[in-house]
Model the fold of this input.
Amino acid sequence: MQTPVRSSFLSSKIMKHIALKIGDFYFFENFVLVEYAKEAIISMRALHEIKTKGLGQFANNKPFGLIVNKIHPFNTVPTDAMQLEKEIPNLVATAVVSEDLTKTVNFDLENHFFKKINRRLFSSLEEAEAWINEKVEAKKNSYTK
Done:
């Protein structure tokens, strides 16, 4: 079974937590980690509340990443990817974590709709966190050059 973030090495680094019907959102310095609710349907409409309540930390185009810790099965609306990229342009990378990579069939389908956001699959939170931080820091550094 996938390790929830509160039981992981990341638990002491959580800066803020927002619990919504579609899942739990954990805020860190460079990224948001989400654990979607079982069988949730993830769309831009469903994400509206977290956009208004939680993403202020990443205002002013501060680059950030997203880690999806797949502890439950959920469904996405892949065609919303283009809208996500337009509405949240400072989201630079997304890591999907699943200990069972055979349960990530939709990942390849979703990738066809993402044009700007770098996305990768991982089998551990440790690998995902390192990759996300690397991508976010690289984007921050590109602004200072």
